[in-house]
Structures are given as structure tokens and as C-alpha cells.
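step=encode ok
step=design start
structure_in=
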């Protein structure tokens, strides 16, 4: 395992450049400070409620915001829009089997569709599902199906200053303790996310995935991978873990997936498409159940809520995501932004993860209490400064405890700058860094927010706030 120091040396530094050139452009609209102040007020200080027309550089999410390639667009014309048995479904099935190695595939409209199906089919009320930190929709579906979620990620994941190279790892002692406490028969599966979105896009090591497989095998517990960014995870294994430096992405991905029984997938991330997802499993019985459920929630089992053309673009995207020059520039863009911020001593989660920079809002605004929503405040201030849209990943995203109704108080209070794939240039990232710096320099003037409207489910999407005096 390399330290961060030696990782830096590996990188010193023949510049990479984006391995593509621009064929179609989408003009960006700029706004004045007055327009932005008005827009963020109308949006209830929630960046999810802004109109994208008022946004200059959109770093809300990397979900469904990728630029497709000319090959993918050409593939759209090959859409076979038959209700049943579309050519594109078989092409996608074959591609996922080939690279991810699972036996059965069920397409879904996006990742949460797959999470819903897995949770409903595998969870019995009263069960317990351990995971390496929660993801919003994943945990929601597990809880809705009657399970209790348990965070079994290593402690370093909750420490923004820890330089552990694999902060997504599962803590085997925590997992063993849960098995001892509730019994293996109450744990339908371990939910293993690679990379871990909520921890800052942090990867899991191959060694850890293998160890989780060994431990769960001893107890007859299944492992389901949240494979949303598993290719990005494979890149980090190549970059940081001994023995993988010369291996192709596809080989690392296949080994990684081999330690799980199946996966849920949001194609809107790694697969470089604007919509789509899938569920996959090696378990014949569970497959039968999920293939039956999919027709109720998503669509027939050969389209699952996607058009034929979308399945074609996704199959092409799977192969493009496994191209090493592409992935180096993908992660390289985020590392570049991290280096700019580091130079100015801006507090953010290190080491830099796979899809975003996570600003440490507690360190930005040490004078604000967590219940004054520091990360939400930072996202609003960044937008007002420059029209850059980020999002909150802190107390608002964590929601309320379903038992007590109180706010959950996550250790991490972060504002996420998420980089869409193949969309922005280095010059855009320079601008982002400069705006973050301006907000950091003005941190004394931040007063925090008050929650004025709170929806019942996944509140961060639609909640509204007002500035505190
Ligand atoms: C986006 C995401 C999901 C949910 O996928 P959708 O396509 O948005 O429904 C699940 N897990 C992780 C880690 C994600 O990033």
C-alpha cells in the first residue's frame, strides 16, 4: 500500500490532458450578483431548487450529467424500441456479464430502482443491513423494507484529516460485532459501496473486499455491491494498492466484483449516460423474484424503464469507462482542483476521492452550530458568489432518525463540488477554486440558516431555508 507521499511522487508530473476534443458546445449563461441573490432566495437557499438556467458551472452532481461520446450518440440511433426482447437489452446484458461477471441482469430506470427491487426481495422486516457508510436512497429503501441500517465503515472515513488511502474500507471488527449481536440469519446481505459517495468518493481496497467475502462466507451472508462507481474504485486500486499497478481496469473490476454476489448500479455515474441502471445477481432464486418484481415498478424485464437507445448508449459507456486514459483524466480533474485548493489551505476531505471535492464546512464556519446548517450555508454562499452550484452533504442529507424523529448529527458536514464526466475544462476548475477561496476569505460574515419547510422523505432535495440574522 502506498502512502500519500509516494502517491504524489508517482504523479510528479507529466501533465495529462483530456483524451477527447469538443465537437458540440452548449453555451453557458452568466448572471449578475443581484440576479443570483434573488434566485437563491426564491430557491429557499437550497441549491436543488435553483433553475439550472441560473447556474453558471453546475457541480450539483455527477449523476446523469456526463457528456456522451460520438459513439454513444451514434448508438442512440440503433435503439430497438420493441416492447419485449430489444436487441439493446441483450447487448447490455452481455456487456455487464463480460465486465462485471454477474450471471443475471435486470435493467432499471436508475440506481434507486435497483435498490428498491433488491431491498424488497431480500429483506424481511426486523433484518439488519450493514454498509460502509450510508447512501441516501440506498438506506431509505432498506429501512422502508423493514431493515435497520448499521454503518460498519472504518473510523478514518469520518475523519476529514485522515490520509488513509482506502477510507471506504469496511471495519471487519464492527461487522463481526454486528453478526455476534444480531445473528447471521438476520443479515440478508452486506451492502458494500465502491467508491463511498458520502465519505467523499473514497475507495475500498481489493484486500478489504476479499476479507469481507471471507468473513461473510464463514457465516453464509451475501454481499451486494453498490457498483455505481466501481470502475473509479478500480482506478484507485491500480493507483494505490500493491500488486495492481500494471493491471488493466477491466481485470481489476472483474476481480473486485468477484467478491460479491451481485450489485445495484446507477448507470448515471460510471456508465457515462444520462439515465439508466441495473440490478445483477448470481443467485438464481433472487433473480426470479427480482425479475418478477421489476414489471410492477420499472417495466418489462428487458427494458426496466429504459428506452432501447438508452440501453445501447449504456452498453457503449461501460466499455468507454474502462479506458485508462479516460479514467486518468476523470480522476485527474478532481485531483487538479484539489491541488489548487490545497495551495490556498482551504479545508476539504483528503485524500481527494473519485468524483468530487468535499469542502469541510465545519472548518469553513467554525462559529456555526451544526443545526445552523454550515454546509447548506456554504453551498448557498458559493452560488451567490459566482453562480457555481454545489450541494450539501451533512445534517440536512442525513435526515431524521425514524425512531426518535430527531436530526441525525453526522460527523461529516460537507459541501460537495461534484465534477461531471467529460463536461468541464481545467479553466472552469480554476474559476471554481477562485470562488471557493473568495467564500473562505469571507467566512466571518456567514450567519447560517433556519429550516422553514421540511419534506418527509429525503428532505435535502426539497427543504427550504431562511438566513439567520
Ligand atoms: C447515485 C447513487 C445511487 C442512486 O442512483 P440513482 O441513479 O440516482 O437512483 C446509489 N448509490 C450511490 C453510491 C450513488 O452515488
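sequence_out=
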Amino acid at each position: 500500500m502506498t502512502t500519500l507521499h509516494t502517491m504524489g511522487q508517482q504523479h510528479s508530473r507529466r501533465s495529462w490532458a483530456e483524451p477527447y476534443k469538443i465537437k458540440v458546445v452548449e453555451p453557458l449563461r452568466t448572471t449578475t450578483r443581484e440576479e443570483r441573490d434573488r434566485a437563491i432566495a426564491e430557491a429557499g437557499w437550497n441549491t436543488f431548487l435553483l433553475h439550472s438556467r441560473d447556474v453558471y458551472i453546475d457541480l450539483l452532481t455527477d449523476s446523469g450529467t456526463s457528456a456522451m461520446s460520438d459513439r454513444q450518440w451514434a448508438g442512440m440511433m440503433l435503439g430497438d424500441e420493441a416492447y419485449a426482447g430489444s436487441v439493446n437489452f441483450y447487448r447490455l446484458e452481455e456487456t455487464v456479464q463480460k465486465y462485471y461477471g454477474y450471471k443475471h441482469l435486470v435493467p432499471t430506470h436508475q440506481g434507486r430502482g435497483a435498490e428498491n427491487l433488491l431491498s424488497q426481495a431480500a429483506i424481511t422486516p426486523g433484518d439488519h443491513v450493514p454498509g460502509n457508510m450510508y447512501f441516501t436512497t440506498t438506506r431509505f429503501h432498506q429501512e422502508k423494507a423493514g431493515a435497520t441500517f448499521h454503518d460498519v465503515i472504518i473510523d478514518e472515513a469520518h475523519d476529514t484529516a485522515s490520509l488513509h488511502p482506502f477510507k471506504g474500507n469496511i471495519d471487519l471488527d464492527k461487522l463481526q460485532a454486528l453478526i455476534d449481536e444480531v445473528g447471521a440469519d438476520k443479515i440478508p446481505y452486506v451492502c458494500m459501496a465502491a467508491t463511498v459517495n458520502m465519505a467523499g468518493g473514497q475507495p475500498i481496497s481489493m484486500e478489504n473486499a476479499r476479507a469481507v467475502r471471507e468473513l461473510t462466507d464463514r457465516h453464509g451472508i451475501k454481499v451486494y455491491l453498490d457498483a455505481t462507481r466501481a470502475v473509479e474504485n478500480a482506478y484507485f486500486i491500480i493507483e494505490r494498492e500493491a500488486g495492481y499497478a500494471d493491471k488493466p481496469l477491466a481485470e481489476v473490476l472483474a476481480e473486485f466484483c468477484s467478491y460479491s454476489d451481485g450489485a445495484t448500479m446507477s448507470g448515471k455515474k460510471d456508465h457515462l449516460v444520462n439515465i439508466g441502471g441495473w440490478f445483477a445477481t448470481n443467485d438464481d432464486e433472487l433473480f426470479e423474484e427480482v425479475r418478477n418484481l421489476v414489471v410492477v415498478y420499472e417495466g418489462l424485464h428487458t427494458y426496466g424503464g429504459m428506452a432501447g437507445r438508452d440501453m445501447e448508449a449504456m452498453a457503449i459507456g461501460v466499455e468507454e469507462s474502462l479506458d485508462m486514459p479516460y479514467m486518468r483524466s476523470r480522476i485527474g480533474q478532481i485531483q487538479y482542483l484539489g491541488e489548487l485548493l490545497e495551495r490556498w489551505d482551504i479545508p476539504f476531505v483528503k485524500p481527494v476521492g473519485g468524483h468530487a471535492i468535499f469542502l469541510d464546512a465545519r472548518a469553513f464556519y467554525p462559529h456555526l452550530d451544526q443545526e445552523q446548517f454550515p454546509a447548506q450555508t456554504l453551498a448557498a454562499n458559493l452560488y451567490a458568489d459566482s453562480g457555481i452550484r454545489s450541494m450539501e452533504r451533512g445534517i440536512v442529507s442525513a435526515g431524521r432518525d425514524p425512531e426518535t424523529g430527531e436530526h441525525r448529527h453526522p460527523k461529516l458536514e460537507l459541501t460537495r463540488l461534484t465534477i461531471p464526466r467529460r463536461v468541464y475544462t481545467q479553466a472552469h476548475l480554476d474559476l471554481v477554486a477562485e470562488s471557493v477561496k473568495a467564500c473562505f476569505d469571507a467566512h466571518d460574515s456567514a450567519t447560517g440558516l433556519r429550516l422553514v419547510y421540511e419534506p418527509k422523505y429525503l428532505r435535502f432535495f426539497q427543504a427550504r431555508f431562511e438566513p439567520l440574522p
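step=design ok
step=annotate ok -> The pocket of pyridoxal-5'-phosphate is lined by residues 63, 110-112, 135, 137-138, 193, 197, 226, 228, 266, 268-269, 277 (CB under 6 Å).
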